[in-house]
């Protein structure tokens, strides 16, 4: 996946850096070995397809060792139009949306010097049982 630089546009949109107590994300403990397609590092179950409200919650709930996420690319046409850039917990995050029908719904998180993490997106309307199963499958639990 290649990332294009953000298009010039309005200044980043400010979003409070607070997050609720229950972030619905499950991460893989150990990466798989061997040569294969890009792996999924875990799963994220947002409450809606509204990027402005969901991304601050996700980013606020990630492990500190992942560092400062500077770019997020979500795949799927259901997402609200991304703002291009948004301010999350006092830093600018570039946000982009793709719609690749052959690819699963994912969120790709990039942190300079730290790495890339791909999360399977569990549909917000999924039942708790469906979400639990998808999250377990994606994280290897």
From TrEMBL:
<protein>
    <submittedName>
        <fullName>Uncharacterized protein</fullName>
    </submittedName>
</protein>
<dbReference type="InterPro" id="IPR046036">
    <property type="entry name" value="DUF5994"/>
</dbReference>
<dbReference type="Pfam" id="PF19457">
    <property type="entry name" value="DUF5994"/>
</dbReference>
């Amino acid at each position: 996946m290649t990332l294009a630089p953000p298009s010039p546009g309005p200044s980043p949109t400010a979003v409070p850096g607070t997050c609720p107590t229950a972030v619905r994300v499950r991460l893989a403990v150990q990466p798989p070995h061997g040569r294969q397609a890009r792996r999924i590092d875990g799963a994220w179950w947002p409450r809606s397809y509204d990027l402005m409200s969901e991304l601050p919650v996700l980013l606020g709930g990630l492990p500190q060792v992942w560092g400062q996420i500077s770019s997020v690319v979500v795949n799927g046409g259901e997402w609200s139009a991304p703002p291009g850039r948004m301010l999350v917990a006092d830093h600018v995050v570039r946000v982009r949306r793709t719609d690749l029908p052959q690819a699963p719904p994912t969120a790709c998180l990039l942190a300079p010097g730290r790495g890339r993490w791909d999360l399977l997106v569990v549909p917000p309307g999924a039942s708790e049982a469906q979400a639990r199963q998808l999250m377990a499958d994606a994280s290897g639990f």
